């Protein structure tokens, strides 16, 4: 196959490209330039996509003996990932830019361009597995489906952020690191192949906020918007420079003028962009046992085997959060999934409803991704539109 290897400049993507070459594929390496000023995208081990990273990717391609190119996707990145990040925070929601990057850049812009150029697949250094198996087809004969599964490396598993790729794009993806159980194994592979990135530190945090100051980044883009912090009874307990900088579940950096009467810690329990107000309250108000999602996406063969609506599964609402048991169903509408949301924007697309059957989750916010699993297999994904306690609703 003709394979385009996405090479970030890190050890994972370099080894993934090496394994694709070793498997006999015709491999071309490409580095995605995601910023016009690429120095700003890395500070030590924070961030990615710097000039340093492009150079590391080129050296890895040279060692592997494959062609190497740099594709400028900075405008697309700014218009999709960064714009979504800003608009979601401004709307009082909590976005995940890594999910949006996989959706709009790696498995849309990059994959579509690769397909147009005649490549059969894109290989990335993600930690996840693709499992191919046969299931009964509509005509009674066998049908092949490709399933997305967790990586055996629990600490690095990225199936949560890959779920947004969906079945059609998954069909043109390769994850050569899927079988590796640890990062040490990947580094050992890189060292054995003479790749200089074998000891390079992992990048982390939001790549376009390389200094880690998310609040500062938001304020630089959205400006200062002073407002009030209130408790659940409406009493003013503090001030802020912009409600957009707060997320549900946040405890630190609230700038409260006085402690709670009972002395207990207070958390952000609601962000109200219409009034530029942040509401704080006790921890128990963060617990939810029902979640509604919008823009739901299901993998091939999932819903046709769940004909009765509700089915048992596990759900995960953070990239490295623990999955929790739940009852799940897909629907075209449902509580919190149609009409305007808290920001006044219309919610459209297939809906998802979740009832947690174990312990409640804390701090689930609109805008987060919720991924549905059964064991290691990803069944589907949606964007949280609402989360609440059923008992409180009664």
Structure notes:
The chain is an alpha+beta fold and 394 residues long. 24% of the residues lie in helices and 31% in strands. The chain is built from 9 helices and 23 strands. It has helices at residues 11-22, 51-64, 74-90, 97-116, 159-162, 166-170, 183-192, 214-222, 390-393; strands spanning 2-6, 26-33, 42-43, 46-47, 68-72, 121-123, 128-136, 142-150, 173-174, 227-231, 236-240, 267-272, 277-281, 287-288, 290-298, 311-316, 324-331, 339-340, 346-347, 351-356, 361-362, 369-374, 377-388. The strands form 7 sheets. The protein has a 6-stranded antiparallel β-barrel with strand order 15-20-17-16-22-23. A 5-stranded parallel sheet has the order 5-2-1-6-9, with helices on both faces. The protein is globular. It starts with a strand and ends with a helix. Mean pLDDT is 88; it is low at 334-347.
Descriptive tags:
23 strands, 9 helices, six-stranded antiparallel β-barrel, alpha+beta, five-stranded parallel sheet, single chain, 24% helix, 394 residues
What is the helix content? 10-25%
| Total number of helices | 9
Write down the overall geometry: globular
Distance between the termini: 57 Å
Taking all Cα atoms into account, the compactness measure Rg is 22 Å
- Strands in their spatial order, largest beta sheet: 15-20-17-16-22-23
- In terms of per-residue confidence, which ranges show pLDDT below 50 for 5 or more consecutive residues? 334-347
Structural class: alpha+beta
β-strand percent reads 25-35%
Which sheet architecture does the biggest sheet show? 6 strands, antiparallel, barrel
Mean pLDDT: 88
Q: Number of DSSP strands?
A: 23
